[in-house]
Amino acid sequence: MKELLLARAFRLIEPGPVVLLTTSHKGKANVMTMSWLMDVEFTPQIACIVSESDYSFKALRSTKECVIGIPAVDIIGKVIDLGNCSGKDVNKFTKFKLTPLPAEKVKAPLIAECLANIECRVIDTILVKKYNLFILEGIKAWIDNNRKEKRTFHAVGDGTFVVDGRRINLKKKMVKWKEIINI
Amino acid sequence: MKELLLARAFRLIEPGPVVLLTTSHKGKANVMTMSWLMDVEFTPQIACIVSESDYSFKALRSTKECVIGIPAVDIIGKVIDLGNCSGKDVNKFTKFKLTPLPAEKVKAPLIAECLANIECRVIDTILVKKYNLFILEGIKAWIDNNRKEKRTFHAVGDGTFVVDGRRINLKKKMVKWKEIINI
After folding, report:
1. What residues 20-79 of chain A have any CB closer than 8 A to a CB of chain B?
2. Residue B21 and residue B106: Cα distance in Å, rounded?
3. Nearest CA in chain A to B172
4. Is the pTM of this model over 0.80?
5. Between 1.20.1290.10, 2.60.40.2550, 3.40.50.1820, 2.30.110.10, what CATH number should domain B6-181 receive?
6. Which tens digits make up the pLDDT trace of B47-106?
7. Which of A67, A131, B92, B145 is the most buried (most CB within 10 A)?
């Protein structure tokens, strides 16, 4: 994993991929699958929904730290399977042969098999009680540029997933966003 | 546009497509392009970021109503162009030849050229001041099943856009989510 310019990390979230969320609580690392998240600010700040019924909820609320890992489609099977069991019952890193790597600024681990990882701190919990909505701030980002498979995938919510298809370049049209797209 | 079961409307948002947001304020309809949004609840509830600098901000905050339209890739040019000018200066419906249709429960219009539309009410503004974050509730949903082009597209944030590619069916793996995916 090579460092990714933090000002570019919002681009990992904006397309709306399925991601992994790692936490570390009382010496125990865990990972869950997450699809409900969005950019809030370019710095980046990210909003996400982690349900009270998720085993990771307590870890996230207590430690106020996590890592968002962005998987590519070659590990979609693992990503979906680990989203269908609980860290309460199994060590998911062992069970799904995922490699936790030490992060730099948080205790939650990076995932070696992911395309990219964003170390995050929870900066706002005001909507946690009502909507399970956490506001995170990305504080360090990593990318694996040597990875061959770079296509991410998107949950449809009916048990199907859509893989990234072709890319359309409309840079010339983005007049209003020139500064942002040139970062 | 045919009615879409409201309990399925979250599936329009979960994959993370670029969407259109319409408002109607003081008799004037407007539409903006939006990429920062996510599901919050299946009912559906949706969080989105509408910046104070967007002309639609005032309309959304005042009327507390909007429509989220989901465009397919055949109108990507219009969607990006209308996101690069302001309703302050132009009537975007006229300029980009988009057809506003009357919604049922809100004054903001549906867009005939979209694949689907969700009529929404703003239900929480507590994070508007700090993050420009609105919580919406979908109250009526519409879909155009006769439309040929159904692939949506996703903003990367660098002036490029990724179109929906192939679909992977993992319904059998979604043990924990059986009730949701069968809606």
Report:
1. 35-41, 45, 47-49, 73, 76-77
2. 13
3. A159
4. yes
5. 2.30.110.10
6. 999 999 999 999 999 999 999 999 999 999 999 999 999 999 999 999 999 999 999 999
7. A67
